[in-house]
């Protein structure tokens, strides 16, 4: 079977450059010898063309009929949902997320488009009476213009969807750069969008590296706003460059999300919440719990049961129905996980189970979920984002100490608590400085119709998703008129 070579989508067409020196191979982390598809890499020049096309298309799109936008978004959402099995398998092959989770992600992508199809028709705006006689005031929102979207590899279809859908919904044009590790889902999404009836230039997608495509997007004076999800270091660079160019930014970066387990918790529930939040999706979620803060009365029972459940997880090929934990996304991330396991041991934590590469003929990046106890708050495995299934358990005396430990971080994305105490749960919800708080639920796994985002080093700018996305994708206009 010949492997297709695909390309970027610019100004209403898939553009073939014919540059055989710039080929990106998309490989399956469950079987790195398997090339899923090949892509021709875009560079600086094509990115400039895409930005120019988006700029040309912006004024008409900003004035477009909301019914046209609603119909286009609904078409995209329907097709994603209709092709859920096929897209989930593609996602599992290129990113390593198990099919069950990939199906959930594809559904979320489809539903995001359908949510914003409705949102395009939602009434908005305010009317005021002026403090001056016979003057009326209208306040309403207008599109930002051209949005640069830079997406990570860990949610290859849902994150692009929840950025692209509101951008188009609120009348913006888009220049989208997916992560180079996951071009296939991005290409499939772009192909669907290409048939949704949007005018040329409204949506553009560039498959290529951060140093050329990403860099052109963040520096271009024709980009009005940037929505980014990815690493903290890249986020900081984008924030600095965007500030120079006076661009609006929305950044979703790292996390070191705590889960508190109190003595009064239901043990089985606590273990399930910890397991799912920490290890599912191979721990590759910015919302994953990577610190579990456990009070002394339940600590030993909790650790014993969590270790038992963790050892029973099946690590394997993302396409196998029996797999619980798919491969790590690539060799670099695998190396990072293994390095942190070494650091954890060197700094004196106890590795209860996991933390090893599973050797296999195919060279798949299989890694067993790691559970550390005897953790101290100054250890690196407790403080730094690992982005893998590596969990640090900290023992504390009581809720007060647990709360202080949970707060002891520069990040602030998601935080959870497992307890039967209404009082402690309520205190945690009100006082945690995380952007999202979960009670008796995993820190990872969120809905698509409500605001998503964090505080501190985790996020910058206004919230993603739900109706709150309007704040980022529009600007406010205030008009005064004499009667
Ligand atoms: C989730 O936990 O359901 O990159 C979503 C991430 C987040 C999305 C997590 N932006 O992991």
From TrEMBL:
Looking at the record, the residues that make up the Aldehyde dehydrogenase domain are 24-478
Active-site residues, Swiss-Prot/TrEMBL:
252
PROSITE patterns for the chain: ALDEHYDE_DEHYDR_CYS (PS00070), ALDEHYDE_DEHYDR_GLU (PS00687)
Report the source organism: Pseudomonas urmiensis
Protein name as it appears in the record: Aldehyde dehydrogenase family protein
Keyword Chloroplast assigned to the entry: answer is: no
Q: Indicate the family of this protein.
A: Belongs to the aldehyde dehydrogenase family.
Keywords, sorted A to Z: Oxidoreductase
Name the PANTHER family for this protein.
Answer: ALDEHYDE DEHYDROGENASE-RELATED (PTHR11699)
Family annotation (Pfam families): Aldedh
